[in-house]
Amino acid sequence: MNMGQPVNGCAGVRTRILFYLERDLHLPFLLPIHQQICRLCPGVETAFYAVPYSLPQRGLPGWGLDEQELQRLATTARLVDTVEEFSPDITVFADACTNVYNWYNCGKRVFVGHGIISKGGFYTTNLLVRRDNLADLICVPGPWHKEILEHNVFTPIEVTGFIKSDRLFGEHACTREAFCKQYAIPQTAIIILYAPTFNDELSAIPCLGAQIAQVCEPDRYLIIKLHTMTDSSIVEQHRQLAAGHPRIRFVEEIDVTPAMAAADILISDVSSVLVEFMALNRPVVAVNNPRQQEYENYQADDIEYRVRDACLQVTDTKGLLEAVVRSIQQPDELARQRMHYAEALCFGRDGHSAERAARSILDLANGVY
Question: Residue 15: which residues within 8 A CB-CB, separation 6 or more?
Answer without folding.
Answer: 41, 43, 44, 45, 89, 90, 365
